[in-house]
Amino acid sequence: MVFASGVPVNGVCVIGGCGEPEVAVGLCRRHYDLTRYYGMPFAPMMQRMCPWCHEWFAPGRVTRVYCSERCRVAYCRARKANPADYPLRPKTTLFSSRKEPVPEKPPMRVESFTDGQVVEKCNGLCARCGRRVDLNASGVDGPLFCWKVPLDVSREATLANRILVHVGCGGAKP
After folding, report:
1. What is the superkingdom listed in this entry's lineage (predicted)?
2. DSSP string computed for 2-17
C-alpha cells in the first residue's frame, strides 16, 4: 500500500518510531485520533501556572491544577484559614502550543523575456529618475535591470515587474 503522498507504509504507522499497525491514512489508531482531535498527529504541549507557588508546569492532563501534592495541600490549608481569599476551584489558564497553519505562498509566475524587451518597455528611460539610460556606458550611468516589486513579495518574474534604472539610481526607490 502507498500513502497519499507516495510514501510506502507496508501496514505500519508512518510516524517515525511508532511501529504500530496502520489503521487509516497511514496512521495507527492513536496518531489518527490525535490528528482528528488536534489537527496534527502529536498532542500539543500544555502549560499551567500553579495557583500556590506561581511556577509554570506541564499538567499532563487538563484537570491537574497544582504542580505538586505539596502545593495542593498548602493551598487547601490556606483556604481553610481564609476562604474569602482562596476560591474552592482556583481559576488558572491552560496554555497550549497549537501551531497556526502556515499560509502557503502562491506559486511563482515566470515569464521569459530579454533585456532588450525591458529597454523597449521603458523606452530607454530610467524608471527612478526619468533620464535616458546609456546602454553602452559603464559605472554610475550604466544600465541596471531591477525588479519593481521584489520577487519574494510579488511572486512574479514577469516583464511587467522588471524595470530599467541607472546603476547610480539602483538603491533609490521610484
Report:
1. Bacteria
2. B-TTS-B-TTB-SSTT
| DSSP category for residue 93 | P
Q: Which three cell numbers stand for residue 17?
A: 518510531
Residue 56: in which H helix or E strand, if any?
A: strand 56-57
pLDDT bin (cut points 50, 70, 90) of residue 19 is: confident
> Span 35-59, mean pLDDT?
84
Contact of 150 with 125, CB cutoff 8 Å? no
Q: Can you tell me the distance from the alpha carbon of 66 to that of 144, in angstroms, rounded to the nearest whole number?
A: 65
- Give the β-pairing of 109-110 and 156-157: parallel
d(CA 70, CA 9): 47
Count the alpha carbons within 13 Å of 122 in the hemisphere toward its beta carbon: 31
pTM: 0.42
Spatial contact of 74 and 25, defined as CB atoms under 8 Å apart: no
102, pLDDT greater than 80: no
